[in-house]
Amino acid sequence: MEPRIRYAQTEDGISIAFGSVGSGPPLVLLPTIPFSYFQLEWKIPEYQTVFEALAEHVQLVQYDARGTGLSQREVVDVSLDAMLQDLQAVVRYANLERFALLGMFGGAPIALGYAAQHPEHVSHLVLWAAFADGRIAQGDQQTQALLSLLERDWSLFTETAASVWMGWLPTEAARRVARAFRAAVTPEMARALLDAAVKTNVSRLLHHVSAPTLVLHRPGMPLDMAGPREVVAQVKGAQLDLLPGESASPYIGDWTLIVRDALRFCLDDPNLTLADNPPGSSDHEQSPPHGLTARELEVLRGIASGDANQQIAMALGLSVHTVERHIANIYRKIDARGRADATAYALRHGLA
């Protein structure tokens, strides 16, 4: 069960890849910018189980944002208005008159903006890691440290992003996600999309949102609560649903709670239960071990900064051999298999 790829054309002439699977009331899952490639996401077990659970109850509609995935890659305009055109094209070509929106991360302000401008079409609004002002999403120190790797080492950036944003996945799972990230977008387009996202601000539109709104969040995850709080405070009648766990990803940890609550809300069925709990529904989150020495912390910070072993050695007045020995000890203590894992650990624990 996977969606068949179709294409819609926006008002400004951009080709947008989309697909749908399942039956029932339509639920449009907005792309996670800048790494949207829904065809590949269906190949990742952690994503697929969630998609299939949703499609058991609704018609799940997915699409790739312009500049990413199977949508047109060579684009110039990646503003909020352009992203709203993408969504409008998809729902028009899919013949959807009234539908629910599910916006995660960077998809949240797009969902909010569309709901404010087209209240007649949006039946329900479900948001994960919600924010209206893009500066909130990229303003924290951890995210800034991560984004500094984008131009310096694209492979390291995507692997670290997969580990950080997906909640310290097992190594092979993180690498699957990282490969999908790299396939979804070029480094240049990723930077353009992130730069546009940080300038996005739909705060002034929140009081125009009339659709029933559910904001899902895990207080334990490393994301500022200011975004969800603003949305709940400014959208009339919005509900905040706080769930257990630490992963920023809805696909990791007890995702069944997220799917269940989203479906109950969109289908107005408080008694809805999922058919089963497929493998992968248990909490994958792990707390990495500690016990690093002061010198190992210095070496780890160098790794997280993208420095080569020789650069770390020069900065700390050590031999390259000594740095290599420290790195081996760090990897063993934090259960890392490479620089990306170590960088993710440093970012998650505020060491970078």
Biggest sheet strand line-up:
1-2-4-3-5-6-7-8
Mean pLDDT across the residues is: 88
| Alpha carbon gyration radius | 20 Å
Largest sheet: 8 strands, mixed
Report how far the terminal alpha carbons are from each other: 42 Å
In total, the number of strands is 8
Number of helices: 15
Architecture of the largest domain, CATH level 2?
3-Layer(aba) Sandwich
Number of domains: 2
Query: Which superfamily, in CATH terms, is the homologous superfamily of the largest domain?
Result: Alpha/Beta hydrolase fold, catalytic domain
Main structural class: alpha/beta
Question: Characteristics of this structure?
Answer:
352 residues; alpha/beta; Rossmann fold; 2 domains; 15 helices
What would your notes on this structure say?
With 352 residues, the chain is an alpha/beta fold. It has 2 domains: 6-266, 3-Layer(aba) Sandwich (Rossmann fold); 294-334. The chain is 44% helix and 12% strand. The chain is built from 15 helices and 8 strands. The chain has helices at 38-41, 45-55, 80-93, 107-117, 134-138, 141-147, 154-165, 171-184, 187-199, 226-234, 255-266, 294-304, 309-316, 320-334, 339-348; strands at residues 6-9, 15-21, 26-29, 59-63, 99-104, 122-128, 213-217, 239-242. It has an 8-stranded mixed sheet with strand order 1-2-4-3-5-6-7-8, sandwiched between helices. α12 (294-304) packs across α14 (320-334). The longest helix has 15 residues, at 320-334. It is globular, with a radius of gyration of 20 Å.
